[in-house]
Automatic annotation (TrEMBL):
Keywords: 4Fe-4S, Iron, Iron-sulfur, Metal-binding, Repeat. Pfam families: Fer4_21. GO terms for molecular function: 4 iron, 4 sulfur cluster binding; metal ion binding; oxidoreductase activity, acting on the aldehyde or oxo group of donors, iron-sulfur protein as acceptor. This is 4Fe-4S binding protein. PANTHER family: PYRUVATE SYNTHASE SUBUNIT PORD. SUPFAM superfamilies: 4Fe-4S ferredoxins. The keyword Transport does not apply. InterPro entries: 4Fe4S_Fe-S-bd, 4Fe4S_Fe_S_CS, PorD_KorD. The keyword 4Fe-4S applies. Its cofactor is [4Fe-4S] cluster.
Length: 100
């Protein structure tokens, strides 16, 4: 199995993009494709960073200092991988445009 490698992009330097498909998806502001978005239950979130590690476009930032998770909505596709991988089920997918 071939090992994925870091691919340079024109996106901000904090991005870690792996594989050719991820490179294409992170090359443009494609957040408008999103039908659902992740919502964080701050009381359940332990800021372990699992969601950020599994995000295919690296659009989640986790701060250990107690700040809430931050999402780069220009790149979030609403795929739900972050919600699926969260060990504490602190993320849930909600319809885009809802007031939550």
């Amino acid at each position: 199995m071939q090992t994925q490698r870091n691919t340079p992009t024109s996106t901000p330097s904090k991005r870690r993009v792996l594989g050719p498909c991820s490179h294409i998806l992170s090359a443009a502001h494609t957040g408008s494709w999103r039908l659902e978005r992740p919502s964080v239950d701050e009381s359940a979130c332990i800021r372990c960073g699992t969601c950020a590690r599994y995000c295919p476009t690296a659009c989640i930032s986790v701060s250990k200092e107690g700040a809430p998770l931050s999402f780069d909505w220009d790149y979030c596709k609403g795929c739900g991988i972050c919600a699926n991988e969260c060990p504490k089920h602190a993320l849930k997918m909600i319809p885009e445009g809802s007031g939550d």
